[in-house]
Amino acid sequence: MSLLLVEDLSKEFGGVHAVQNLTFAVDSGDIHSVIGPNGAGKTTLLNLLTGIYRPTAGRVRFGDEDIVGLPPYKLAARGMSRTFQNLQIFFNMTALENVMVARHLHVNTGILPALFRVGGLGRSEAACREKAAELLDFVGLGDYLSAHADAMPYGALKRLEIARALATEPKLLLLDEPAAGLNRVETQRIDDLIRKVAESGVTVILVEHDMRLVMAVSDHILVLDYGRKLAEGTAAEVRANPDVIAAYLGAQAVDGD
User: Fold this and answer.
1) What share of the chain is helix, strand, coil (3-state, %, to 5)?
2) 3-class SS at 172?
């Protein structure tokens, strides 16, 4: 069953066609990767799906609803969350506080309860703190609860951003290059975490340049080239596609290097 359906999606910036007539579906529970050369339109696609950009043409359905035109905060409330290429961390907060901020959809934030400490606000805050701690443990950052973000290693910050995205309790998690800038050990941790997220029941859309990671975790891969769909299929199908090899993967892809 498709959780996300994209039909004839296009986005133009002036005379530049960043995404062109793109159609694909993402099934519930899948890890669905999007790959392509720099400038292929991958991040633009994520921005279209998450309401940061409005498409020039086309339709996006999330569940049973057409979501074109909905802003990011409404999409978050419907179960869509994402991370970014460039870290969007609050560096003046602890790791725990960063995750707690993203729990706002599940916390009583009314003015009167906050002023008069009524309506179970204290219990809500305690539950928020407990859930944030659970998520940090889930992503392997249980030892960083009280650490300030500006003192954490870069690889840990990547997983912190994933924990914060998971704090909204998404049905669909979009990851924009979560392994960028990481060494082999940290990349393996991201690999393991993506699998763990999918196993928990969250559908994943992954944009990533690390082909070892993509080929290892993906149920389905969409290949973009100049904003158009070049190919799609399983990792084995994409790896063997001559058009993909010529445009992006290179001859090494055939050998699995």
Assistant:
1) 45, 25, 30
2) strand
- Which run of H or of E encompasses 255? helix 252-255
Euclidean distance between CA atoms 173 and 6, whole angstroms: 16
Residue where a domain stops, chosen among 168, 196, 224: 168
User: Is 208:179 a contact under the CB 8 Å cutoff?
Assistant: yes
Q: Is 135 exposed, middle or buried (0-12, 13-18, 19+ CB in 10 A)?
A: buried
The verdict on 73 and 112 lying in the same domain is no
Sheet with 228-233, edge to edge strand ranges: 80-82, 172-176, 203-207, 31-35, 220-225, 228-233
Question: Is there a single domain that holds both residue 97 and residue 145?
Answer: yes
Check residues 124 and 28 and name the one with the higher pLDDT: 28
- Which of 147, 168, 189 is the last residue in one of the domains? 168
What is residue 112's predicted lDDT score, i.e. its pLDDT?
44
Tokens (6 digits) for 206: 């992954």
H or E stretch at 197? helix 184-199
Amino acid of residue 65:
E
Residue with tokens 């891969």: 221
**In angstroms, rounded to a whole number, what is the distance separating the alpha carbons of residues 244 and 202?**
28
The pLDDT > 70 percentage for the chain reads: 89
Rounded Cα gap, residues 94 and 159, in angstroms: 14
Cα(155)–Cα(161) distance, rounded to whole angstroms?
A: 10
Residues 6 or more apart whose Cβ sits within 8 Å of residue 10: 17, 19, 20, 21, 22, 55, 56, 57, 58
| Whether residue 52 is found in the same domain as residue 101 | no
Residue type, 128: C
* Claim: this prediction has a pTM higher than 0.85: yes
